[in-house]
Amino acid sequence: MNKRKGSLMSVRNDIKVLDATIRDGGLCNNFNFTDEFVTELYKMNVKCGTDYMEFGYKASRNMFKESDFGKWKFCKEEDIRSIVGENPTDLKIAVMADVGRCDFKTDFLPKYESVIDMVRVACYIHQIPAAIEMIEYFHELGYETTCNIMAISQANTEQLSQALEMLSQTNVDVIYLVDSYGSLYPENACELARVYLSAVEDTGKQIGFHAHNNQNLAFANTIETMSYGISYLDATVQGMGRGAGNCALELLLGFLKNPKYNLYYVLKFIEKYMIQLKKDGVVWGFDTQYLLTGLLNRHPREAIEFTSLEREDYSEFYKTLLENY
User: Fold this and answer.
1) What is the mean pLDDT of residues 291-301?
2) Which pLDDT belongs to residue 9?
3) pLDDT tens digits, 111-139
4) How far apart are CA 278 and CA 275, in angstroms?
5) Cα separations (Å) of 23 from 19, 60, 222, 227?
6) Domain ranges across the chain
7) What is the maximal distance between C-alpha atoms in the chain?
8) What whole-number distance in Å separates Cα of residue 23 and Cα of residue 221?
């Protein structure tokens, strides 16, 4: 399991690229994307050959007010169909369901009635039993499933070992290593990748990686973990995502050698839509405050607040973080 899989010149057909721009990027603007933006992003993904497009969350409408968010916080079936119709393409549609923040037994149709292909169950490591209940429910409905264990950099070795053993015995299709705080380096990201890959050896399950860019390492960590056998790779256009953002889709597609991926259409989308989004004041991306929370393996909420207040006193912020470490 310590050997690299493939080379810089080779094509790995097990690689799947998932565009999470709407879901993770929606955390930057309360999911208030125009229908035109989402429709054109869908067309872009079809043309550039990505394997999955994540439309957003299936959040509980009992817990969250619909009036406070754009429609992709809730991903109603009719809203997705208004963009993709019957989705007569090779692109698969994904949504995310957070443990404890969704009404999964009432808000999901059986797969044969839905245009959704994959449900990604997100949880913290102490929520694994609840995540397994959801995974098995979605599997019975006919969906592909993933388990995205968040904030893994703060889990201890014993917890992780138990979680992976439990998940390896379920019907989950993909288990995601998620660097929620952007605190991993290529070396320890790869060590974790080996742990995940070893846990699912001979089970037929795949491992995915979701990176955050707090230390400007989202792309580096993604391709490094991929080189050891991780095959489901998350990315977003221009790295759009909460706080420091994610691995940039244009970086990843530019790196992958599979001719089915076409960078040109991502660049066209950036020209027409992403530049305007930033001009409109939507904020994301690497900055010093995110570096500091990443270094200290902290949730980026304090850095996000620092950003919203337009502060520039990085040294004072660093001192405060250290005092509360």
Assistant:
1) 97
2) 86
3) 999 999 999 999 999 999 999 999 999 99
4) 5
5) 9, 15, 18, 26
6) 16-279, 288-323
7) 55
8) 21
Within 8 A by CB and 6+ apart from 127, the residues are 99, 100
Q: Region 167-172: what's the mean pLDDT? A: 98
Report the 10 Å Cβ neighbour count for 27. 18
Sign of the torsion angle spanned by Cα atoms 18, 24, 30, 32? negative
What does the pLDDT look like over 108-118, one tens digit per residue?
A: 999 999 999 99
- CATH match for 16-279 among 3.40.50.12370, 1.10.1740.10, 3.40.50.300, 3.20.20.70: 3.20.20.70
What's the rounded Cα separation, in Å, for the pair 281 and 187? 36
Q: pLDDT by residue (tens digit) across 170-212?
A: 999 999 999 999 999 999 999 999 999 999 999 999 999 999 9
3-state DSSP of the chain = CCCCCCCCCCCCCCCEEEECHHHHHHHHHCCCCCHHHHHHHHHHHHHHCCCEEEEEECCCCCCCCHHHCCHHHCCCHHHHHHHHCCCCCCCEEEEEEECCCCCHHHHCCCHHHCCCCEEEEEECHHHHHHHHHHHHHHHHHCCEEEEEECCHHHCCHHHHHHHHHHHHCCCCCEEEEECCCCCCCHHHHHHHHHHHHHHCCCCCCEEEEECECCCCCHHHHHHHHHHCCCCEEEEEHHHCCCCCCECEHHHHHHHCCCCCCCCHHHHHHHHHHHHHHHHCCCCCCCCHHHHHHHHCCCCCHHHHHHHHCCCCCHHHHHHHHHHCC
pTM of the model: 0.97
Q: Please say whether the beta carbons of 212 and 241 come within 8 A.
A: yes
Vertex 30 angle, CA 270 and 76, to 5° = 95
